Amino acid sequence: MRLSPALRQKAVVTGLWTLAALTVAVLLFIVVYVLAKGLPHVTWNFLTDRPREMGKAGGILPMIVGTLAVTALAVLIAAPVGVVTAIFLTEYTREGKLTAVIRFGADCLAGIPSIIFGLFGFVFFAITLKMGLSILAGGLTLAIMVLPTIIRTSEEAIRAVPAAYREVSLGLGATRWQTVTNVVLRSALPGISTGIVLSIGRSVSETAALILTAGSALRMPQSLMESSRTLSVHFYILSREGISMDNAYATAAILIVAILLINIAAYWLMSRFIAKAS
Amino acid sequence: MRQDKIIQWILMGVALTAIGALALIAIFIFKEGLPLIFRVGFSDFFLSSQWRPGQGQFGIFPMIVGSLVVTAGAMVIGLVFGLGCAIVLTEFAPRRLATFVKPAIELLAGIPSVVYGFMGVVILVPIIRQYLGGPGLSMLAASIILGIMVLPTVTSISVDALRAVPRSYREGAIALGATRWQTTRMVVLKAARSGLVTAFILGMGRAVGETMAVIMVAGNSLALPRSILDSVRTLTSNIALEMGYATGEHRQALFATGVTLFIIIMILNSIALTVSRQRAQKVPKV
């Protein structure tokens, strides 16, 4: 039996809608479940106290500080490098061997598993460069990890800027660099910030690479050279070793809330910027 | 003009960071792991099922199988659901719904993998144990959890790829009398192919490389799995589970596991990159 195109469209579209609804439902369920189980255990004391009895009691302040430090370090290094790479690829060179090599590098880095970054960070930053298990080693490892995301999204954003913008700017006598910074980057910014947001999210949620490079010390970090346990690592250890389910759920809830806030803030900034630019 | 040249050189230097980092990673992982593979011997490393670090036996065959099967399972789920979602969002959903749902899905890519793993342990594993039998901690559980994990990545990048297809393509097809679905299938999906392959590569990368969630739900047994309900250890889990206490030859063996993972990833990446490049050339640019 051959279905008419109209009927087939109906069947396929219904199927696709079901798939999409199911996807959204599963993802929503995960968020709601963790928040419902975890938020009741999040108290002011939990946020501002240090962990006691290996995390069975007390709070997570040192992990919050550690997470912020590692993430900030990673993004502060990767964002400029990534955006500059994208500018070079799109504005300052012709497609050729060199761009192919750079793109190959970024594509391959994007596919490399975090545990490999962990192994590399451990043997290179921690041992060879003698940083030890530290925030610095963890942040540098993460910076390399998120670099491809920033390159790729920035490149796409820059490419999406109409050629006419550049022509007008160049036509008005601006140099190439002025055109890039004043015109191209400005209109590509929303796309670039999306990449940076994704990178922040990835840094906050990374676990495997950080266990091997930043370690899992429970105390409050005093400098970049000290080991620190991030929230994700703390959550992993709490749940895996069955130390405290309540505190595990609470930590997971905080992670999820943090990621929600980071994203909402970024979207807000982005829309403000678009409103200003136009 | 001279200033321009200087800027160009500086930019180029920075742009080489990515490939430089890749080279550095390859050198350090291979330097630590390769000697052990040669010492143990290729077949005793890659094709043996005996992993007994205490006795100098380092066979990783079951872990290679585990990684490949779990990833394949995850990609089936990720592709069917992720691409389905992307098509609905770009081609069929009202615009306002799409502008709301896409960021929401992207946001879920940020949820730590350990949280997905944990959800697997508390919800999925008991269900599998009860209704399908076996230990529950299994390849199936790992595939499903990884499939869910790659969904946001696959969906988000696929949506971008589909949106990048010019409106005029769709209008042309519709004007020729095609239904919306025919337009999607015959025109939009074809034009967006290279972008969709990118989505697949990044999703696959996340699945092969995922460590923590897999450790939590796959059971980590060293035996060669016989069914999807068996416990399994992947290459990534092997490294993460034992790196904490491994020393000497054992640690080198874990780096050698990393070498294997690295090679698998590079092969998959190269295949995917070539495919996307070939297809990109076939689709005429209008």
Summary keywords:
heterodimer, A: 278 residues, mainly alpha, two-stranded antiparallel sheet, 11 helices, 1% strand, globular, B: 286 residues, two-stranded antiparallel ribbon, 13 helices, 2 strands
Brief summary of the model shown:
Chain A has 278 residues and is mainly alpha-helical. Chain A contains eleven helices and two strands, in the order ααββααααααααα. In chain A, α1 packs across α11, α4 packs across α6 and α7 (163-171) crosses α8 (176-205).
Helix and strand topology:
The complex is a heterodimer of chains A (278) and B (286).
Chain A: H1 5-38, H2 44-48, E1 51-52, E2 57-58, H3 61-91, H4 97-111, H5 114-128, H6 135-159, H7 163-171, H8 176-205, H9 208-213, H10 231-240, H11 245-277
Antiparallel strand pairs in A: 1-2
Helix pairs in contact in A: 1-11, 3-6, 3-8, 4-6, 5-6, 6-8, 7-8, 8-11, 10-11
Chain B: H1 2-15, H2 17-40, H3 42-46, E1 51-52, E2 57-58, H4 61-92, H5 95-108, H6 113-131, H7 139-163, H8 167-175, H9 180-191, H10 193-209, H11 212-218, H12 235-242, H13 248-282
Antiparallel strand pairs in B: 1-2
Helix pairs in contact in B: 2-13, 4-7, 4-10, 5-7, 6-7, 6-11, 7-10, 7-11, 8-9, 10-13, 12-13
